[in-house]
Amino acid sequence: MAMFEVKELTKYFGGLAALSDLDLQVEAGEIRGIIGPNGAGKTTLFNVISGVYRPTSGEIIYQGKEISGLIASKIAGMGVVRTFQRTALFHKFTVMGNVLVARHLQAKVGLFRTIFGTNRRIDIEHEEKALEIIDFMGLSDLKNELADNLPHGHQRSLGMAMALAAEPKMIMLDEPVTGMNPTETKHMTDLIRKVRDEWEMTILLVEHDMKVVMGLCDKITVLNFGKKLADGLPEEIKENSDVIEAYLGGAEVVELLGE
Ligand SMILES: Nc1ncnc2c1ncn2[C@@H]1O[C@H](COP(=O)(O)OP(=O)(O)O)[C@@H](O)[C@H]1O
Ligand SMILES: [Mg+2]
Fold first, then answer.
1. pTM value?
2. Is the pLDDT of residue 7 over 50?
3. How far, in Å, is the centroid of ligand 2 from the Cα of 43?
4. Which of 112, 135, 167 marks a domain boundary?
């Protein structure tokens, strides 16, 4: 049985089917790319999985349990999280502060205790785990820096550190390298691979940078108008004529086929 599965998932916004009868099966430890033109439903898929939106119909099964319709914090607590975008950082908090708050927001421990902590031993445990994550993401030297003062690339790393703070088993990354320069892109790509390899994470990756997608993903699912257009290995997707056609007319085809 797949570690994560979506069955006939449908999400309507008014009369628009942002997701339509989508089936997905993801194995533990897999990096699954989710690609498709703008408006294909990629972000909606993440929002529905993470509990931001309720699906209109269909099932979302994680480790054999139906999670669709659960509230977001419950889903995060079970180990399924999405990354925080730059705008979701606590800009006036330090790197350490952000990771600690994220850890508490996504776990069973209340935020109240984060701020007015009363149990020093538990606080130390949380701090140690936060430090480990910060170190893993290459942010140790910046742990006392305000999030606001970090360069863009480091803010993205912090966003990922915050997602990892709850010690998830599956993370959803929505355009993790968008807006990054080549050095930052390489760094983030290496980190994503490292998270999977060393933490045995299952990763769903939405990304427009086809070099990153083709280089990182074990398998790729292509969405178009909320429907699955194709599923397969990166080599298969590259050669799939339906996929090429769906991208034709857009700039994506150039990237998809590689320079
Ligand atoms: N909250 C919303 N309300 C209404 N329509 C939405 C909402 N979120 C997304 N949509 C629509 O659903 C479709 C899929 O959007 P989205 O999931 O953001 O696509 P992608 O991430 O693949 O670019 C688009 O037509 C978009 O306009
Ligand atoms: Mg999107």
1. 0.89
2. yes
3. 4
4. 167
